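Subject: design request, 265 residues
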């Protein structure tokens, strides 16, 4: 691009005159789009079929004819629409219509209300604590320090890598030697998984996806979280199995228990 005025002066002059965008209609406001996008709005849209090229044929010759004649088919379809009076309207901007504006404004207000009233507001100037937006969890000092100083720690690691492996005449460490990974703590490290070396030690891990889905479903269906959390969240009811997935053989073996009847069915 720096040599464009020298190698292609006519293209540079066209760019300086605003020729890097195309407007389909002279009476359609705010309708300029990039040059490389114009084919998507004209030829490709007029020639598209349900399922793409594999929707009508998988034969190589048919697909080849499809692309060779796409330009002509697009032109014929455009003329047919113009003849039938079904061309593009001068104001074909659905985003500028009042129903769309009203719906977008309602969506924005819903998100603002959710952030300000139900979740932690990330734009609150009086909030001094470091907190997770989605879960509302306050991290311990070591996790907060790693999150806030992640860029600084990364730059220090980069400087050490450059100094020890590249800049020194006799480098202390070879370039392809093993690197020590910076294991910075995040919100997910507040609750860790059980250690394989000590299987009897159970440490719960916070499942952000599960509770995020629960909050969204509860908000959309106007449910109370106390009612939602009253039901078991495991793959099986606690009457049949424990948290470690071991079944309660006494209950499962008894066919008279209501949960056992459902389990056997």
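Subject: RE: design request

Done. Sequence follows.
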């Amino acid at each position: 691009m720096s040599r464009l005025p020298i190698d292609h002066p006519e293209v540079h002059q066209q760019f300086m005159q605003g020729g890097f965008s195309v407007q389909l209609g002279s009476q359609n406001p705010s309708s300029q789009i990039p040059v490389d996008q114009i084919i998507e709005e004209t030829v490709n849209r007029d020639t598209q079929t349900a399922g793409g090229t594999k929707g009508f044929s998988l034969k190589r010759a048919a697909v080849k004819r499809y692309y060779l004649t796409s330009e002509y088919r697009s032109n014929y379809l455009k003329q047919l629409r113009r003849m039938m009076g079904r061309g593009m309207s001068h104001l074909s901007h659905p985003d500028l219509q009042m129903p769309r504006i009203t719906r977008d404004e309602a969506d924005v207000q819903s998100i603002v209300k959710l952030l300000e009233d139900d979740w932690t507001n990330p734009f609150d100037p009086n909030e001094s604590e470091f907190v997770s937006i989605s879960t509302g969890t306050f991290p311990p000092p070591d996790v907060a320090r790693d999150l806030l100083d992640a860029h600084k720690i990364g730059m220090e690691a980069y400087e050490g890598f450059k100094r020890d492996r590249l800049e020194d005449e006799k480098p202390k460490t070879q370039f392809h030697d093993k690197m020590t990974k910076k294991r910075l703590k995040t919100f997910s490290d507040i609750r860790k998984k059980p250690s394989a070396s000590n299987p009897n030690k159970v440490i719960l891990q916070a499942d952000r996806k599960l509770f995020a889905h629960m909050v969204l479903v509860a908000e959309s269906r106007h449910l109370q979280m106390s009612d939602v959390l009253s039901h078991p969240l495991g793959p099986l009811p606690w009457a049949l199995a424990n948290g470690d997935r071991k079944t309660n053989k006494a209950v499962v073996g008894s066919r008279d228990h209501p949960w056992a009847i459902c389990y056997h069915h």
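The chain has a mean pLDDT of 74.
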